[in-house]
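Technical note accompanying the year-one report. For the benefit of new consortium partners, we illustrate the data format agreed upon in the data management plan: each record pairs a sequence with a structure-token string. No post-processing was applied to the example shown here.
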Amino acid sequence: MSKVALKYHFTFPDSRERTFELELDRDTAELSTPTDPNPPAWTELGFHQCTGCPFEKDKVSHCPAAVHLSTVIDGFTDLVSYDKVRVEVETDERAVVATLSAQQALASLMGLIMASSGCPRTAVFRPMARFHLPFSNESETAYRVAAMYLVAQHFIAGAGGKPDFALEDLGRVYRGVHAVNRGMAQRLRAATRQDAIVNAIVLLDVYSSLVPAAIHDILGEIKPAFAALLSEPPSA
């Protein structure tokens, strides 16, 4: 089974360092199974279970997204949201380095983990996890979301379904993710004494509200770059 390897290397304000190595299945973009045989109590499925979660407590013991996140948060329990951290993200193709707030850095890592964790509500973002772009801004996020969604519509059309090229149903996708973000924030408040981790989820949730509401405006701003693709093809 082919894997995609990603590494997040953090350098904290006190010069401490922490590295997280992730492996995604190259085809499905799902994370490898965590190895902790005894995940913490706050990862149990029934603990602040997300509204609309399709899992049942008698069939699934732990929230898969929470279990994956539990392997990360111990290194950040003493950071506050606006502490500056240096982060280097390495993949087989490139390295991206940035110095930014702890909540921004964590939002990038935690968003990647949640999308690829096995949670059925966040699985819609696995294509973005497979082609991960750390620390993307509002315009980059909107462009990537639209591209991901429209590729999905291409596949739907190819299978004989009815595609949504107008992005009309994108809000429904994000409503499911919003419910996960709210439930996860409640879990994490019980797991950490500092705010950087919880605020990273809040930051992700801001995007989940902003992107579907503003995506047409954001795409309108970058439309001039598509001038050559939108013009009439030259006659033969």
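Partners are asked to follow this layout when depositing records. The longest strand covers residues 3-11.
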